[in-house]
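name: query_chain
kind: protein
chains: 1
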Amino acid sequence: MKRYVAAAVAILVGLGAVLLAGRGEDAMDSGSPGPALPRGAREATVVRVVDGDTVELGGGLGKSRLIGIDTPEVYGGVECYGREASAYAKRQLEGR
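structure:
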């Protein structure tokens, strides 16, 4: 019985996500190539990776934390694999 409840919940969550995604289409700006951005959003360049989950943006926008990313710390108390997480973020994000 628990399997059926879990499957039903997964289906409902999936349908809800599809419906919400469809509702947001007219709020998106599709005039530019690449992924659509919400109106009022600005593109920025990553000028410096602070650590694995924090970046500094160009254009005076300051620092920003990456949503859904939580990496080991490299400041204060260095945590296991913190340096590796920072190095990976630098390779993937710096200058983009």
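note: Residues 22-30 have pLDDT under 50 and may be disordered.
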